[in-house]
Amino acid sequence: MNEVSISEDAVKTIVERYHGEKSALISILQDVQKEYAFLSKDALNLLSQEMEIPLSKVYEVSTFYNSFSLVPRGRHVIAVCAGTACHVKGGPKLRSRLEEELNIECGETTEDRMFTLEEVRCLGCCSLAPVVKVDSDIYAYLEEDKIPGILKTYREERRQSGEN
Amino acid sequence: MASLFPSKTKVMVGEATCGLATGAGLVHAALAKEIKKQKLDIILSKTGCIGMCYREPLVDVIEPNRPRLTYSRLTPKNVPAFLNQIQEGNHKSKKPYCRIDEDSFIGNGETKRYFSGALPDDLGEVSLMSEIDFYEKQVRIATRNCGYLDPDNIDEYIARGGYFSLHKAFSSMQPEEIIEEVIKAGLRGRGGGGFLTGYKWQSCRRAHGEVKYVICNGDEGDPGAYMDRSIMEGDPHSVIEGMIIGAYAIGAHEGYIYVRDEYPFAVNSLSLAISQARECGLLGENILDSGFSFDIQIGKGAGAFVCGESTALMASLEGRAGEPRAKYIHTVEHGLWDRPTNLNNVETWANVPVIVGRGSEWFSEIGIENNAGTKVFSLVGNIRNVGLIEVPMGITLQEIIYDIGGGIPKGKQFKAVQTGGPSGGCIPKDMLDLSVSYDELSKAGSMMGSGGMIVMDETSCMVDVARYFLGFLESESCGKCVPCREGVRRMRQILDDICAGRGREGDVELLESMSEAIIDGSLCALGGSAPNPVLSTIKSFRDEYDAHIRDKKCPAGVCKELA
Fold first, then answer.
1. What are the chain A neighbours of B306 within 8 Å (beta carbons)?
2. In 10 A of CB B177, how many CB atoms?
3. Which residues of A fall within a CB distance of 8 Å from B316?
4. A121/B454 Cβ within 8 A
5. Which residues, in sequence order, are CB contacts of B251 under 8 Å at separation 6+?
6. Distance from the CA of B347 to the CA of which of B84, B276, B353, B376 falls in 20 to 30 A?
């Protein structure tokens, strides 16, 4: 995914969706992130102007919440659940294996922008621990050795769809 | 009623998040495809989570004049054979896991049998759901409808006694009477605080101000707890009905449900339920011709544990960073946008319609003194029957873990059960006869919290567990109070050292004295209870700390550097 240039109109449309309500800042940031996969400097600047909220405040909110990213993320976001049940049932092993397979640390994105590896606080599927989520797919009772196969399916999906 | 007790065969798939994660969506799709292909006269529907997570994906079959049958662990591959067996009326491909003869609507106390006469011969061997170990000791009030109805269908909620309490409240009760009932019922906040819900409502009703708000806290952040998700996904109307009754009693006309970002299905389910309630005139202007108006909006979180704290949640709803503030000014007087605000958690709201419907006397007889009613727990970790359970207060940990949970799998030994989320503590084996209530759990150095119960066996290292929670709290601390922001980090570093074999004599005492400073020096409960996991493990598992520090050994073999 290349750097996407922010369209002023798109941001305006999103702000209008919430009638420019200042209290909707979090929802607006979520929508912008959904559109552009991350919150760029340009996007934050635009929002600050459109909503008449100081940039420092916009920045404060976008860095306070875990679900916002100020750097571009990969095509697929892998979230390792770090809830207590997952921790007890081997979540940390899954995390190290993913870091090893992807050759990145948790919180980073692979060089080809294919995968971003993140830790999530608790997905609320504690009965299925340990759990890893890739985009919106949840992998339950995951065993370490299944990880390479799972990564492969996402890589191949891309090749099949003929994108580059 | 016709869709709950259909005149033709109905197949229901349990499709809450955990069902979907184990393939319920694929099973549903396979069923739909096969039913269409074979042109079968079968109703296909979905339902929420009945709690038997250890058996997912679950499929229920209701046939006219037969008990409802529950089948577990169905796969898309099984589907054609499964449908054949339903057509042929045998159990060739899949045996039912259990059966339900009678559906009881706890909201109004009615029951309805699925069949009349004797039990069909072929089902003599199939156990009743209410008699299997996992369910025998359960009493389902907050989760009364989860797994019994289609959450997307308001008619099914109404058929099971839903919105009758609202009607009762509007037609025959004054707001003060409702508050009195909730006080007399002894309902305490199920989010973990344990404050008497009725008193909170009363203070908010009495607070000065024209505009008041009610909020449902659906920011279930405690790792290991997912009962609120299950209720929001599986029975959203119970929360909405509770909120309308509460708003009427308090005199609020606007409500918010704050849902955490990690729960997309809960948001979908609630949004749909809200729009259905509006269409039916249960939300909006002049509800049921009572002259009372009330509406609900959904606010979405963005991944911040601290937003489960009431003042942080309100800051987040206002579009700000979720930093808690000191609470000597109560939110019932100055809450959201500085106006009187009453906040309760999902499970608390879901209890309200039943209390109003059945009366405080009925409710307060369940549970024990000062701890009325039930509590939903997520029983997870190293335990055989993993799932969501709702039990009367006062049940012992022993009963939960061994009778309901079936004990520890793989021949391992029980070590501890962690309750109360990151603010809670670890309860060791010699305290298993502890009765589960707000007061007893606090006395044991833990807390009720939102209801996570994570069972640990001998393969868990308690020092590592303490470190895990501090790591969690370190990154979730909002950073406002220095003792929490810096102190928790320093404590985590000391625990890192201990786990890596760099522990020194005196570390445990240092941790204890830092804990004291953090507890005293933090504004909100996150900091105020952050040291609990450390203090409770030091208290019950001091030997493990000593083994790490003195012998440079991790008895459980978890800490890599000491292996």
1. none
2. 13
3. 26
4. no
5. B175, B205, B212
6. B276
pLDDT at site A160 = 66
Q: Where are the beta strands (DSSP E) in B196-286?
A: 213-218, 254-259
Model pTM above 0.90: yes
From the list A27, A85, A123, the residue facing B300 with the nearest CB is A27
Neighbours of B58 (CB within 10 A): 27
> CB–CB of A124 and B229 under 8 A?
yes
Tokens of B439: 């007061």
Q: Which two tokens stand for residue B388?
A: 């969501």
Contacting residues of A for B468, CB less than 8 Å apart: 84, 87
- The token pair at B187 is 């309902």
DSSP B454: E
In B455-501, where does DSSP find H-type helix?
Answer: 462-476, 482-499
Return the residue of A nearest to B456 by Cα.
A88
By DSSP bridging, strand B213-218 and strand B341-345 are parallel
Report the alpha-carbon angle B9-B11-B16, nearest 5: 155
Coil, helix or strand for B68? Answer: strand
The whole-angstrom separation of Cα B294 and Cα B284 is: 5
Give the gap in angstroms from C-alpha B533 to the nearest C-alpha of chain A: 12
B168-207 pLDDT per residue, tens:
999 999 999 999 999 999 999 999 889 999 999 999 999 9
B405-439 as b/e, with b when 16 or more CB fall inside 10 Å? bbebeeeeebbbbbbbbbbbbbbbeebbebbbbbe
Nearest CA among B315, B226, B239 for reference residue B283? B239
- What lies within 8 Å, CB to CB, of B192 at 6+ separation is B222, B345, B420, B421, B423, B447, B448, B449, B450, B451
Buried b (16+ CB within 10 A) or exposed e, B367-404: bbeebbbbbbbbbbbbbbbbbbbbbbbbbbbebbbbbb
User: Which H or E element spans position B265?
Assistant: helix B264-279
Asked if A85 and B305 come within 8 Å (Cβ–Cβ), the reply is no
User: Could you read off the pLDDT of B259-307 as tens digits, one per residue?
Assistant: 998 899 999 999 999 999 999 999 999 999 999 999 999 999 999 999 9
Q: Does position B226 have pLDDT exceeding 70, yes or no?
A: yes
Does the pLDDT at position B249 exceed 90?
A: yes
Residue B286 CB partners (closer than 8 Å, separation 6+): B292, B293
B517 has which bridge partners?
none
Q: Give the helix ranges, DSSP H, for B130-174.
A: 133-136, 154-159, 164-172
Which position has the token pair 């980090």?
B489
Give the pLDDT confidence of B105-120 residue by residue, as tens digits.
Answer: 988 888 999 999 999 9
The pLDDT confidence band at residue A1, using thresholds 50, 70 and 90, is very low
Mean pLDDT of chain B: 95
**Whole-angstrom distance, CA of residue B288 vs CA of residue B285:** 9
In angstroms, the Cα distances linking A147 to A80, A98, B453 are 12, 7, 28
Question: Which residue among A24, A124, A136 places its CB closest to the CB of B319?
Answer: A24
Residues paired with B344 in a beta bridge: B216
Residues B298/B307, Cβ–Cβ less than 8 Å: no
Question: Which residues of chain B make contact with A66, given a CB cutoff of 8 A?
Answer: 302-304
Q: What is the pLDDT of residues B385-395, one digit of tens each?
A: 999 999 999 99
Distance CA B199, CA B186 (A): 10
Cβ neighbours for B252, distance < 8 A, ≥ 6 positions apart: B204, B212, B213, B214, B246, B294, B342
